[in-house]
Predict the structure.
Amino acid sequence: MISARDLHVGYGADPVLRGVDLHAADGRVLGLLGPNGSGKTTLLRALYGALVPDRGSVRVDGEDLSALSARQVARRMAVVVQEHGDHVPMLVADAVLLGRTPHHRGLGGRTEADVEAVTEALERVGALHLAGRRVGDLSGGERQRVLIARALAQATPHLLLDEPTNHLDVRYQHELLHLLRGLGATVVVVLHDLALAARYCDDALLLHQGRVAAVGGASDVLVPEVLEDVYRMRVRRADDEHGPHLTFSLPGLASPP
Amino acid sequence: MSAPAPAHDLSLDVPSAAGPLGDHPARPVPRRRSRGGDPLGLRARQRRHALVLWGLAVLLLLSALVAAGLGAVAVPPATTAAVVGHQLLGWPVEPTWSVQEQAVVWDVRAPRVLLAAAVGAGLAVCGTALQAMVRNVLADPYVLGVNSGASLGAAAAILLGALAGAGQLALPAAAFAGALGASVLVLVVARGSGVVTSLRLLLAGVGVGYALSAATSFLVFASGSAEGARSVMFWLLGSLALAGWGLPLAVVLVVSALTAAVLLLLGPRLDALAIGDETAQALGVVPAVLRVQLVVLVSLCVGVLVASSGSIGFVGLVVPHLARRLVGAAHRRLVPASALLGAVLLIWSDLAARTVLAPQELPIGIVTALVGAPFLLHLVRRHHATT
């Protein structure tokens, strides 16, 4: 469980988050949603300690984040950030092995268990065949798999992801989110795509100008009344067996031919 | 809400009829139950890299033996080995060589070859660490401005007689003091009121470097001593001519070895930092803290190296690239490979420096630049070709 209370974060004088509460329940997928600049990524970064909040606190499984070392945090939360490291001539196997770093002690040599975990992780994202390739030579989708595999190899109860569907084709976007749902981990994922959020998130937290505009079950958050306010667009919603479907249009503009 | 979920168990299968990730035609996932074999290709690679490292170690030994035998008085490698064996192990017991050969090999060249190896290895591992730290392939051990501080110290010792009380040790002591001062200055400036980022470090290092170089040039210009200016110039380009058995050599050997050992231990953290700050943080490494630790370690090491032999260029820039070609980017292998390659490169460069224009000595920096620049140009061409 990850929870945050009254988070205030600012870069310099500009406050980005102004009093955000968050609760990510075990085994559920929480989507962090909102327009550009609403503070989604900042919130995620505060959750894993990359940013220290000006006010408020984050708790992981009941423990205050600021009382944990970066290493201890990394044993509880794996984070998928948008840094591919394609400037480093590193092989995929080595890149994923890095996910084991927080578990190493002392001299920290590679163990059989590490190799096992990395093999499993690569297999789960369907990238075992890439093990001997260089990260820099991979396609965008393949790189994204490698990053997810590293997080899986980290074997943590919680998983945080910042826009993991960026640069992915539509099929892999769905595959990826489906995979996340099947992990049984606490997942907190920043998403731009509200349709994907509607389909794959259990819960949603909608940010608007650094404040929580709506929070709750994804289906309850993604309603036209709320979204029209936040995105300043006309929103229609139709539900079927796949969940809610959202259609957006700019007010005052005719729909495209 | 569902029952409390376990930490995501890696043996779970993706629960799906369609089998996402599984049935994509382009990437079939083989069901593999027996864990035999080498699915990641790690063992095969490990063997290959071990072979490379042992090969480099043998090359280093042979280079040292050959280099200690060559010069104004040529001594065959077998005799060199015998002299070294006699001195270190007491075997062979009876000398079959002349007193002169003994003196040349043991008193003059052996310490010089050792110093070359230690300085080369130290500069190479420091370059490796810095390239990871600032994520720039053009970084070398001198981007932190440490050598400019050392140069200013050395110039003060040569031209103004600073620390003259220290006698023989005045030059290295003044140079080291200068290096220390420069690195403290860089750290303070880079820290400012925030965290130490790569860019701030680079800017601070370059800024402090230029300022101190200007101060050195001013000293040289203002002193009006042609002889002194020549000494400073020679020192700036680097030379191992001051090598001898004694405290400075011991310090350089110990510091180089310790630095390499610490960087080896930090290997996986360096890997994470080389990818990016966010990645490092996600893996439990606080980037700003690691960077400060690295700056302190590298500055101390480079300070000692430059104090002993001047600012020898290109080794710390080129060797990490060469080593990466041989063993890849993971620092557990890159650091030892860089150390061995750097040692070999500097032994041969020093040999060239003292034999090409014999009996006159070339500053070794000229040799390393002559060897290093073409390699760098080759790298630029390749870089262009692959991106």
